[in-house]
Amino acid sequence: MTRDTKTEADKNGSAEQFINVELADLAVTFGLPAKRFQEELAKFGWGMILDEANRFAHMDEFDRMTELRKQNKERVRQDVHPTWAHLVQAAKEFLPHLASRVPGTPTTPPDRLTGYVYVLFDGITGLSKIGHTKTAGRRQRAQMGGHGSPIVNVVNVKVADCLAAETQCHEHFAQYRTNGEWFSAQLEEIIQYVDTELDWLGADYENQETLEHYIHHCQSGNREEAKAVLRKGRSRHSRFKPTSGGQAWGDI
């Protein structure tokens, strides 16, 4: 969508001029790609919808309490939380041009399997495991502790449906599957796919320096040093265990 925008008048007060601008132009001003700028706007808009839905919920609660008072019934205050209907109502308020697309009685979506998709990497074999978990790090820690060689939890990404996201990754790398959830695809390719193709809510990557040292020792056949690097990394960094956290993915 473009918009005619008036330019600033020059020193001589010349006639007004107008230019066509797009969202991408404003994104450049902030030093962001257009897609990232759109994502930030989407987050802002989603927050507005949630606030409006919360307002509707409180209005309904006020009406409920008022009706109870009229009927001389006991009034018990409850915690107020917006319902699905409140969310739909709020979205229709902000997006009236889409309101007609909403069915008369919108169906509440099923409970989503919010959780994490994780990638474990075995520097000795060069294989990566793509799995899912409902907790931030319990399953990863268990696998890291029981594996025959030292492995690193390269990334955890939080997603709305961890089963669907895991399946998406497994299908994409199906030709590289070696055993169960282990894949022989290049680690860089897997991380790139997870980062760009999954609709994640949050992501945490292994510290870049730790990862590089770990891979170096694995390629040198020094398992003990590889283990030591991971232990040291986890003692220095702590965010989204069991990764040692810190920096976004970069070239190894």
Automatic annotation (TrEMBL):
InterPro entries with a match to the protein in the record: Phage_T5_Orf172_DNA-bd
Short name of one Pfam family: MUG113
SMART domains xrefs: T5orf172
Ranges where the Bacteriophage T5 Orf172 DNA-binding domain occurs: 122-197
The protein's name: Bacteriophage T5 Orf172 DNA-binding domain-containing protein
Classification lineage: Bacteria, Pseudomonadati, Pseudomonadota, Gammaproteobacteria, Pseudomonadales
